[in-house]
Amino acid sequence: MMVTVHGTSIKKWIIFILFTFISTITVVATMTATSTYRLSSSSVHEMTNRFAAESLVYVLSFENVYFREMLPKEKQQLPYSTYFFQMTTSVNFHDPRSLLGRELPGFSLYDSEIILAGEGTNFTNIPYESPPPLEVLLAEREAAQEQLQEEETPPAPAPSQTTGGKKVVYIYHTHTQESYLPALKGVTNPNFAHHPTVNVTKVGKKLGEELEKRGIGVVVDTTDFIGKLLKNNMEYYQAYDMSRKTVVEAMANNRDVQYLIDIHRDSRRRNDTTVTINGVDYARVSFIIGGENAKYEKNLQLVTKLHELLEKKYPGLSRGTFEKKGVGTNGKFNQDLSENAILIEFGGVDNTFQELYRTASAVADVFSEYYWQAEKVNATQPAEKK
């Protein structure tokens, strides 16, 4: 025998389930208030975020049809079966990460979002950093010095404009010891691509040199924040706490600083982090935005422009812009300290320093173009106000 359930009954059941769910959370939170195991705000946030805003508006429209007019046409009728399945399992058919993120151990990319996608970028190859085991950081490794040599280039002409001795860019490296396998003798495991001296600071120095050639004053801070963590028996995730203090102090001591650039290295392999432009290999870059920083919009405007300039002048060099937030990530990356704070992933574990140096030159090229154009705009603003 077939039983027909009227739409009104289904609506009542959905509302009943929603209120039961909310009541359960409230009761559990109350019961655990004095317990060692508490229901954290992040847990509640994660649970409630599993439901799309459209779903809530749709349920409210059962009582007031005007709510439904706020929804896009394709969202004004939601299939009950899909909605109930998503509510009970937290699996969204439109986002495979909702399943993978809960089934695969260490699926730390779940809270990452692609803001701007470069060539070939999708959710299967989002940039990520793999924290090294403690024994890796403590181990001594020999570097291949020939890998560190730069390609010979003709002397650069004197820049047509300069910052007049002002150091307007501050470059630092929160995960200081992130390194690259080709520069480490006998090391093939990507998890071991770390070194106390042969690391991303080499890239930072090269970027600083290239910016100076273009008339932009730079401070390159090579403080070993990871070494400090080890010395103070701190955890790897506390690296941003360590670097933040140094950045704040640097900004206080130098009022000319306008831009903060934090340089990192991706853990992806060569096929995702390398591009050939005019027959020459470059290490690709990724821009990371902390989704929980107060200056998010301004920082996003800056990296969006840099991404667009790279796409125009060095097609394929930028892997895109990615937002990271939520449990398991910092969410700020010190970007709340400035409207012009950038976190750039230079290459991956398999890139050579020659490729990285070429990329540093390319990034300096587009950054200087952006910088001088912005300075020109800023110089005309007072005259426009008069």
**Helical content band:** 25-40%
The succession of helices and strands, N to C, reads HHHHHEHEHEHHEHEEEHEEH
Computed CA radius of gyration, to the nearest angstrom: 25 Å
Low-confidence stretches: 1-5, 29-51, 101-109
- Which strands sit side by side, in order, in the main sheet? 1-8-7-9-4-2-3
Total of helices: 12
Query: How far is the first residue's CA from the last residue's CA?
Result: 82 Å
Structural class designation: alpha/beta
Coarse morphology: globular
Number of extended strands = 9
Main sheet summary: 7 strands, mixed
- Bin the strand percentage: 5-15%
Give the integer mean of the pLDDT values.
Answer: 78
Protein name: Stage II sporulation protein P
Pfam family, one: SpoIIP
Keywords: Membrane, Transmembrane, Transmembrane helix
Explain how this protein is built.
With 386 residues, the chain is an alpha/beta fold. Helices cover 40% and strands 13% of the residues. It is built from twelve helices and nine strands. Strands 1-8-7-9-4-2-3 form a seven-stranded mixed β-sheet, sandwiched between helices. The chain has a two-stranded antiparallel ribbon with strand order 5-6. Strand 7, helix 11 and strand 8 form a beta-alpha-beta unit. Helix 7 crosses helix 12 and helix 11 packs across helix 12. The N terminus is likely disordered. InterPro entries: Spore_II_P. Keywords: Membrane, Transmembrane, Transmembrane helix.
Note the main attributes of this structure:
seven-stranded mixed sheet, 9 strands, Stage II sporulation protein P, single chain, transmembrane helix
